Amino acid sequence: MHGKFDSRHPLVGLSDELIRLNGRLKGMFAGARRSEGLGDSELTVLNAVVEADRAPTVPQIGRSLGQPRQIVQRAANSLIEDGLIEVEPNPDHKRAVLLRATAQGVALKREIDARADAIAEEIAGSLDADLVRRAAGLLHDIRKELEARLRTGESK
């Protein structure tokens, strides 16, 4: 970190930078989804469902994003209404259904991704693409480690 609070735990500094970066990136990429009428929460849930290794539940998405289940449920309901995702029974849980993207949902997500890629190409300038890929990989690894600790109760 570079600032007057360098003495903080690195994880706190990382959190602060991610909040700022998230705000900046949301603003930069808002145009990629604007014409689709999707809000931030709908796009986030659509992304979580489309990119999941296996069909997630609303509570799983909420935990992964650090969002209340109710907010994720509202976004999921909107996406279901629009035919972008669908529910299916969950053999592991009676009430927490699994969410799957429809073909329309996947196609829309890919269109938004293509527009976002074009925006990224335009604004990336001299950013080193390999550095950005490594940073994304490191952030992924940190998130997975923290999630694993939270699941096992190590953080308590």
UniProtKB/TrEMBL annotation:
Residues 11-144 form the HTH marR-type domain. SMART domains: HTH_MARR. InterPro entries: HTH_MarR-typ, MarR/SlyA-like, WH-like_DNA-bd_sf, WH_DNA-bd_sf. SUPFAM superfamilies: Winged helix' DNA-binding domain. Signal peptide: none annotated. This is MarR family transcriptional regulator. It comes from Novosphingobium anseongense.
